Structure prediction request, 191 residues.
Amino acid sequence: MKGRIVPVLTAESADDAVRACEAIRAGGLMSVEITFRTGAAVEAIRRASQLDGLVVGAGTVLTEAQLAAAVEAGAQFAVAPSTNAAVVRAAQRAGIEFVPGAATPTEIDLARSLGCEVVKIFPASAVGGPAFIKAVSPVFPDVKFVPTGGITAENAADYLALPSVLACGGTWITAQRDGIEERARAAAALA
Prediction:
């Protein structure tokens, strides 16, 4: 993962992903998370990974099989909405940066116990937003957070102002295909 804003992209096709990723890159963002929410994910990751200057990751990675497919397709990092010990261990064996998800202190601690230093907070806005992260940060000073879920152009700066926030993930940049480059440029300016 590179940069403080990571667009989250659910691709309808590999061509759709490439067009969106080209716009993301042109807007000045350096990373993208392509989710395993459609059958196009693997080919989208494969094709997007060929774009110079863009770090491509896999999102919504829930199984070891998805992780293996993402790695084979060229993903440089993987993200999950939850913490599954088997998937974390598979990522460690594969040598890929893996960011498991958590919504409670217990889940954050589970991720820590598995050796994860970066944890996705999901769904960030629903579990308390910046106030939640601010509250758990002193308890887990060795963990950096990537809030995702409900992050918008209007509230991203509130998250990014927290020292424990490594980056923010969000769909607001890619939710509408028209204007991705402009939204990416605005997001890059926030970071």
Summary: The CA atoms of residues 12 and 39 lie 8 Å apart. Strands lie at 5-9, 31-35, 55-59, 77-79, 97-99, 101-102, 118-121, 144-147, 168-170.
